[in-house]
Amino acid sequence: MLRYTFDDKAIELSETANGPDIEFHIHVLGDAAMHQRVRDIQHDFEHNHVITDVLFYAFKNQEYQFIVRQDFHEAFILSLMKHRLLTSVTWV
């Protein structure tokens, strides 16, 4: 299992189980660069070989929803770290 931290002045992030999937809700509080980072995460998963690994939804109020298959949970967390939405990731 991975534990992570993020800057709560830049984003609000929640993770909830939804049947076999995991939903991440991200509300961007930061600048336009943070929005680009979220889109970069979307790009990572839209351009890999698995179509159903992560579904992405963008809303007008600077909120994003990602629905992540359980077997891609770690890859998604590491993508959040790669694109600097997270400040730390540790194995628990």
Detail the topology: elements first, then pairings.
Layout: E1 2-5, E2 11-18, E3 21-28, H1 32-46, E4 54-59, E5 63-69, H2 73-82, E6 88-91
Antiparallel strand pairs: 1-6, 2-3, 3-5, 4-5
Give an account of the 3D structure.
The structure is a single chain. It contains two helices and six strands. The radius of gyration is 12 Å and the shape is globular. It is an alpha+beta fold and 92 residues long. The strands form two sheets. A four-stranded antiparallel sheet has the order 2-3-5-4, with helices on one face. Strands 1-6 form a two-stranded antiparallel sheet. The chain has helices spanning 32-46, 73-82, and strands at residues 2-5, 11-18, 21-28, 54-59, 63-69, 88-91. Helices cover 27% and strands 40% of the residues.
Question: TL;DR?
Answer:
Helix content is 27%, strand content 40%.
Widest sheet: strand order?
A: 2-3-5-4
Helix content: 25-40%
Oligomer: single chain
Mean pLDDT reading: 93
Indicate the structural class.
alpha+beta
Structure annotation, total helices = 2
First-residue to last-residue Cα separation: 5 Å
Radius of gyration: 12 Å
Shape summary:
globular
- Mind describing the biggest β-sheet? 4 strands, antiparallel
Strand content: 35-45%
Order of helices and strands, N to C? EEEHEEHE
**How many DSSP E strands?**
6
Low-confidence stretches: none
Note the main attributes of this structure:
92 residues; 6 strands; alpha+beta; 2 helices; 4-stranded antiparallel beta sheet; two-stranded antiparallel ribbon
